[in-house]
């Protein structure tokens, strides 16, 4: 199974949202990482046929998804960014409604809703109204509607937006559970959502793909350029001015400053540490300048 995005471009008037984007996706989780405005939603909206592309092609197993039309939509699951759900609908009614939109028969819908609700851990809450659901429950029912038809391609736009860390972990575990035999593309600007479950991370910046790599390979790019120095609190400001700082942690009367630097920082006994994907995010996205200090 293969989804190939070839040379995709899209502008809104003068604004280039995507520029010559090419990607090949096979079963597994892909994290699409980029800051606000990078073009993540535009890419997802094109794959899900909610926005028209200007040029390029998308093929599923060699066939254009735009020619496949309905046949592609049948194997596609889409969870849009968090939105207002129908507050007066019960969970059951909402899923039943989505099942009908997906063209499922009543009997099919009933079976799939029961199974899917169990999977997302909402089987005990289907008779409650969505207006009374917590943020995490709302996200889980949105995931449930996306996977009702057992899609082969699953597109998730910021699935953990607005959730607390406990719910985030829950959603993450759920995604890795349902992703085994599917192509899953998750757009996020939260590194921890995808760092441990993505087989590859795609970095998108200003509509262009910067890289598509395994998380460990991505982190490895910064090997030898991430340091932790122990500084007195009054010197933290000058370190922040001189370097890109990815973390500060108090240690007794000193502060451990995690920073990115081309060469070991002067004046401090320090050790380079293993880079993380979060360091890479900071390196690529936090500031406009691309070179390390
Ligand atoms: N309907 C539209 N009309 C005009 N410009 C748009 C439209 N949709 C998106 N854009 C612009 O295209 C660029 C890419 O936007 P997009 O929403 O795809 O980015 P994103 O990475 O999903 O951002 P976010 O994380 O904020 O959702 C941005 O500069 C945005 O302002």
Annotation keywords:
293 residues, alpha/beta, six-stranded mixed β-sheet, 11 helices, 29% strand, disordered C terminus
Give structural notes:
- By secondary structure, the protein is α/β, with parallel strands linked by helices.
- It has helices at 40-47, 65-68, 70-74, 91-101, 106-119, 135-147, 165-178, 191-194, 215-220, 236-242, 277-286, and strands at residues 3-12, 15-25, 28-33, 55-60, 63-64, 76-79, 153-157, 183-188, 200-205, 208-213, 226-231, 244-251, 254-260, 271-272.
- The protein starts with a strand and ends in a 7-residue tail after the last helix.
- Residues 288-293 have low confidence and may be disordered.
- Bound molecules: adenosine-5'-triphosphate.
